[in-house]
Amino acid sequence: MSKFPTECPSCSQALDVTRLSCPGCAMQLEGRFELPLLLRLPSDDVEFIVDFLRCSGSLKDVGKLRGQSYPTVRARLDAVIERLSANHDTLDAQRKKILDALSKGELSVKDASKKLKELGS
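Below the sequence we write its predicted structure tokens.
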């Protein structure tokens, strides 16, 4: 099976999940589904997080597993944390923008509610 793509190969924007299917019974669900935060990270960051968890959160053990020094592993963890925080801040900014448009009368309650639901609020 192919790796799960998270970015458009043409323009590099984040992809939306719009269809899910069950291999057992062929049930299909269509809609707009939000990717979990960890799946929005690049695959090498996800692999790093998996290694971190397998090592029970020991950066020293992650370093041994990956053949890297403690400072390198620490810097990598800090970078992943920063990416996760930036992604969270982006969602907060999008929510604020929708709520500001609602308060200014630029969006109806119905439209604002729909947009917030699409963000996963």
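The mean pLDDT is 88.
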